[in-house]
Amino acid sequence: LKVKIPLQKHKSMRETLGEKGIKIPYQDPALKYYPEQFAGS
Amino acid sequence: ASMYINNYADTTYFGAISIGTPPQSLQVLFDTGSSNLWVDSTYCNTQACNAHTKFDPQQSSTFSANGQSVYLPYGAGSLYGQLGYDTVNVGGIVVTNQEIGLSTQEPSNPFLAAKFDGILGLAYPGISAGGQTPVMDNMISQDLLNDDLFAFYLSRGGQQGSELSFGGVDNSMYQGQIYWTPVTSETYWQIGVQGFQINGQETSWCSQGCQSIVDTGTSSLTAPSQFMGNIMQAIGAQQSQYGMYMVDCSQINNLPTLSFVISGTAFPLPPSAYIEQQNQNGYQFCSVNINPTYLPSQNGQPLWIFGDVFLREYYSVYDRTNNQVGFASAV
Q1: Residues of A in contact with B30 (CB under 8 A)
Q2: A40 vs B: CB within 8 A
């Protein structure tokens, strides 16, 4: 079987919150791959 | 709580799956940078959970709980949930007995603003929290696909037009040939990078080898921190008081092309790919959509992350049979 799933582009959390004046601080994107370090960060 | 938000704060491409019998539809982020499936559920009553569509296991005749709880330290916060099994329908592919994390406590308040109800991980089973079998692995073991691969097309503009295909590639979404490179660590979709060029000139920064994780759950292009200064200097970007790297919008066409050499093929990123133009209060500004990472890859080599910035330029194919990633020029 081969299927295609449409993806829709939405506003990101950062954009949505930014419009309300809430800033999301930057965090190292690679922490995602180091969950133990992430848990302790 | 917002300190835990990072990668997922900028993600924008989502699609629908359904779970249970009768099917309940939810919007998920299809994430090649993780391996678990979790969704909002009626077990959760926090403000963030209540802002989304929730899966109700009591309304599904095929649901079975397994009594285990799970903790997922996602890059966007920590999810607590209960594990259960149910039928998952992904674009008409019906996966039975799929283990699912059902949230009991959602990551954090910023998820109130999230436009998705869960995450469907597409990386390898070795990194799956709690040993949960990923959806793709169940598709393979249940023999549901023509070819054991999936592929992403991320549209450069507009809300519509992006797609994820399972079981084969969509020839209408790329041009030219697909260039393949082996997965270097069967955890994430991690590949080797042998060169990095600025305007066609090799920098030698990756002459000893770099690694890159191909991650649809990360929006930006992420560069090793030790290269950032030189990259921004080459681009001529100035750091703003908020830490963003800014360029003069009128100079975009004069900015350099950045290229990655992967298995002997150069993959160029023109400035239009890595510069983000935004309007705020009638003022247009242009920022560089490249972020640093201070962490190396697992083998110690400099680590890049090919997020949406790279994947809008290149149709990407993830082949589980041969453990390789393919890139072709996106239409």
Answers
A1: 5, 7
A2: no
